[in-house]
Amino acid sequence: MTAAAMDINAAALRRDERREKLALFSLCAPASLLVLVIIVAPVGWLFWLSLFNDAGVMSLDNYTRMFESKSYTRIFITTFQVSFLTTALCVLLGYPLAYFLAQLPRRWAALGMLAVLLPFWTSLLVRTYAWLVVLQRKGLVNQWGMELGLWEAPLRLAHNLNGTLIGMAHIMLPFLVLPLYGAMKAIDFDYMKAAANLGANPVSAFRHVFLPLSLPGLFAGIIIVFVLCLGFFVTPAVLGGGKVIMVSMKIETLVDLFFNFGTASALGVVLLGLTLLVLFAAHKLLQLDRVLGGGHGGNP
């Protein structure tokens, strides 16, 4: 092949490469525009508002006040504490439930998943106030417990951290069960039979075979539940009784009562930064890219 022909082929390859890149950009443009409008622009506007103090002057007063005030520190600690505890409760309740549903025949599993999804058909506010009725001092739980002789005095189940965790765990549980159930249904149970044939008892087979294969769904559910809990407002406001103050509640107070959009925006920016930091740390410590990328049902 002559040098001229090679140059012509190279030029044709470069043209094809440019056309391919242009086609890929055209396909990605609508999604990129949507992300820009829905996520990047609001977050950028939030950050811009956080740079103005109460007098409307651009400064870092909102951030310095936040890091110097112990009340803001307590609010952030409470927010992450409630989110971590709620996620832990959802894991303790959701993993056995998803495992049980995955073992059922298709028809019974469909009915079980319908029961899991049933709370989505009811308003969040209605569910929260229903829990308040059930958990208050003269609610159903305390009345039945005292009538059965389980305890003598009413338990403090509402207007505190206990009630907040119960209500949030109930609301967040489906968000963990759904991805976990999908991951478990994708697992080939012949692997469990093979482990049993090789001499593994049921507990050992579960720990070494089934549990690692279900980790992608488990970690996906944990991330979804944890991130959603960070922005909860209604449930801690109602069931917490003013004793459980989360960042979203503080933002609402700053905006509605004091019209302090600068400090409220700074709270949102800091919460977003801390959330990304926690997710990055979990990604590095747990190696989520390997777990989520290599946890297909057919590959143990």
Number of DSSP strand runs: 0
Question: CATH top level of the largest domain?
Answer: Mainly Alpha
Given the C-alpha coordinates, what overall shape results? flat
Q: Rg to the nearest angstrom?
A: 26 Å
State the helix count.
Answer: 13
- Can you tell me the CATH topology of the largest domain? MetI-like fold
Largest sheet: none
Overall tally of structural domains: 2
Uncertain ranges: 294-300
Structural class: mainly alpha
Chain-averaged pLDDT: 89
The proportion of residues forming helix, as a percent range, comes to over 70%
The CATH homology group name of the largest domain: MetI-like
Strand content: under 5%
Secondary-structure element series: HHHHHHHHHHHHH
CATH architecture descriptor name of the largest domain:
Orthogonal Bundle
Question: Termini separation (Å)?
Answer: 50 Å
